[in-house]
Amino acid sequence: MDLRNVVIENARISYRGGAPGMNNVYFVNCTFELPQTHVGQELAVAVLEHPSVIFSAG
Questions:
Q1: Which residues, at least 6 apart from 16, have a Cβ–Cβ distance to it below 8 Å?
Q2: Number of domains in the chain
Q3: Is the pTM of this model over 0.90?
Q4: How do residues 20-54 score in pLDDT, each as one tens digit?
């Protein structure tokens, strides 16, 4: 799934791996369920370090 220029609000995000693409994505009041893998850690860092997420796994 590719997400671009969106705001995700009040959602539970469950990421199980794969190759998402995110560019200029904002998460507002969301909870996350991420795998304890390298890619899960990269996604967590991207979400926590910047107000707008840019992330690609693959």
A1: 35
A2: 1
A3: no
A4: 788 888 988 888 898 888 888 888 888 888 777 76
